[in-house]
From TrEMBL:
Protein name: Glyoxylase, beta-lactamase superfamily II
Source organism of the structure: Blastococcus tunisiensis
InterPro entries: Metallo-B-lactamas, RibonucZ/Hydroxyglut_hydro, Sec-metab_biosynth-thioest
Gene3D superfamilies listed in its UniProt record: Ribonuclease Z/Hydroxyacylglutathione hydrolase-like
Segments forming domain Metallo-beta-lactamase: 15-228
One Pfam family recorded for the sequence: Lactamase_B
Taxonomic lineage of the native organism: Bacteria, Bacillati, Actinomycetota, Actinomycetes, Geodermatophilales
Amino acid sequence: MHRIPLPLPDDGLRAVNVYVVDGDDGPVLIDSGWAIAAAREQLEMGLRQLGYQLGDARRFLVTHAHRDHYEQAIFLRREFGTAISLGSGEQPALDVLQAGKRHPFEPQLQLLSMMGADSLVDELTAAVAFVQPDPENWQSPDTWLAADDVAVAGRRALSVVPTPGHTAGHVVFHDAADALLFTGDHVLPTITPSVGFEPVLSPTALSDFLGSLARVRQLPDALMLPAHGPVSPSVHARVDELLEHHDIRLAEVLAFVRGGAHTGLEVAKAIRWTRRELSLSDLNAFNQLLALAETAVHLDLLQAQGRVTFATDGEVRLYQAS
């Protein structure tokens, strides 16, 4: 088993890990990278060092349908016929992307309007005005994966564990025999994954994510093989940290609402972001969008728990503590 980090364009994460699992009739790759020239070159070089060519890959097991995990698999399937497998919960998002009728970030921009962040809506709308997504880059996989499916790669049996939250159809792959867990973006070693940032928004995204963390925590502890960042010795240890983070964030969001922050934007401005304790205005436009989206899913969960309520003023939601 081998890890090949592939570069990402203009992205704070810098690289996405593609894992190569040796098989009897060719390697199986977990995730594929973004379809850019530098990523293809790096993947080709890495496989060559292992004695493979790009066309030798038998199958892509993709954790979720974000571009940096899924797109290159589509391009390589066109060229070499490599099979692609993806969690069945990603089908609604792919249906939207394949239709090609919506502007990039359309549901996120609508969310920002509900949070009172119209100036950010204007900035992001201008920034993506020239972007024309290609529906062909979001073709469906060959196989939809479901709970308890097992993917065989050489001597390894990789059990499919659905972990909705980061996306609705995110899955992780569990090698119980060797105590390995390929965690995709569900559990990352140094950052908290974004939740529900996809073409079809879910009001239960954070609840789903926390439930998925609990599900993974119930598995025997394993070596964590994440999609971004270094391999880490304990999935359980990192899951505990993520659960604690969200407990703290829920408490502070509720406290800010009780203290008079009535819109999502006002709550997000009160929060300090990243390990550097930055204010919302210190972030660039895209990261402000991620911060506001995280604020929104915490407000959604507090509302579902009956701890906050909201009324609407035009498009804007106004929150108050119950």
